[in-house]
């Protein structure tokens, strides 16, 4: 679904954040992207999200090199990817319901069509009774789940989550992980950026992409 | 493609804390919520800036309009003809004086032709009024010199007047017209000044509105980013902001323009009531009418419209520029 070929990234043209990174995200796969803080996990996710251009090398998404895609093609590709930002990026003036509905709304769908889906998904992530509140009154975990619901509502083929358990207690973290596993089982490719070793050990079967010193090391599970 | 329905397990992954308090139907029927925050501090500040700048722009436009109207009036009164009267004076030759005055007039730029009304001609013109038995040689009949003004820039009448006073003291340039010309010159200066002020205010308005829009947009970059990443097209995002900012701009511009129109209407009304008095007459003579007329109101509406559109356009360009940087 995503392929990196000799991808390097430097924000300032001097220090390399990523060096010659090569890997592929397969369909129906589940992987952790890990490494110490500042290793470049978020940067790598941003490259996959087509939010950033590599300094050199090529990023391919759904079979096409990103640099060859037109604006409408980029938008179409983006709609096939769900993303949970590290800082959630919820819109403060919209209710939980409206935040989650956003990806369907920008498609121009009428609310009568997407409304029930949004409500169903919100109930599934346990926010059925928080739909009408603004993000400001949500707890960290509730914001997290709202962001996840927004990432899922468009039925993405690829889900990118940046430190999704960074702001929640261990119990909730485990639940969220189960949610991602559930998604993976139903066919979505999942990439979770985390530096939480304990979390990864719960899913020992998952592939690990480890960033260290700007280079990516891929560890396949032994199974 | 997967489907949420098939994806959703029977039971919620999370323990239900409270039963759902939202009736699905009711939530769905509610109005469309604006994606761009409707009421924000920066939005209100923008409306205020737009209102003030529209007010100033329309006020200065109206002033320029009034001055132009008034000076138009003055210009019509200044005819294309003037006269110099040369009075007979003890010990001086009237013919010589008339010739000297005519020569001075001819030398003045902007005077197309100079004609001395001959003695015979004057006598013929005056005779019906003075009786035929008179000896015109005994009467102090002034000699008239008729000046026709050219189409180019107005002649420097003050200089001519000064020259006449120096070398032909008994010659007099038509006073009233001289005064009118001074007014005309002043009106021209005022007109240019008012037009200049108007242009400056317009430029300042464009800049202030542009910067205020950018300022109000700064807080919206997050919204642009989020809409972008959830798959909105650039056109969709631009339209959302453009529509929102057009409303903000229109609100501000309408308030500013309305205030300006009210002020002009009040001035017109005041003039109407003051007209009967001598003061009112003087005001009218000097400034024509205070009413800026249909065209004036048209200009005000155009300015307000332009400022509202400018607000929308600036927000759009900020969105487009931001999105261009995003990939
Ligand atoms: N927008 C940016 N501009 C400049 N440097 C950046 C930017 N984003 C990240 N970096 C730098 O790139 C490196 C990797 O950052 P990041 O991808 O956020 O790492 P991680 O998510 O693994 O903590 C860090 O050194 C960080 O300072
Ligand atoms: Mg990060």
Q: How would you describe the overall organization of this protein?
A:
The complex is a heterodimer of chains A (223) and B (327). Chain A is 34% helix and 24% strand. Chain A has seven helices and ten strands. Chain A has helices at 41-48, 71-78, 96-105, 111-124, 140-152, 170-185, 197-202, and strands at residues 2-9, 18-25, 30-34, 56-61, 64-65, 81-84, 158-162, 189-193, 207-212, 215-219. The radius of gyration of chain A is 17 Å and the shape is globular. Chain B contains eleven helices and four strands. Chain B has helices spanning 4-7, 24-29, 41-77, 94-107, 119-130, 157-167, 175-218, 221-229, 234-274, 278-287, 293-324, and strands at residues 81-86, 111-116, 143-149, 171-173. Chain B is rod-shaped. The relative contact order of chain B is 0.16. The chains are: A alpha/beta (223), B alpha+beta (327). At the A-B interface, helix 2, helix 3, helix 4, helix 5 and helix 6 of A face helix 1, helix 2 and helix 8 of B. The structure holds adenosine-5'-diphosphate and magnesium ion (MG). The site of adenosine-5'-diphosphate (ADP) has 10 residues of chain A, from helix 1.
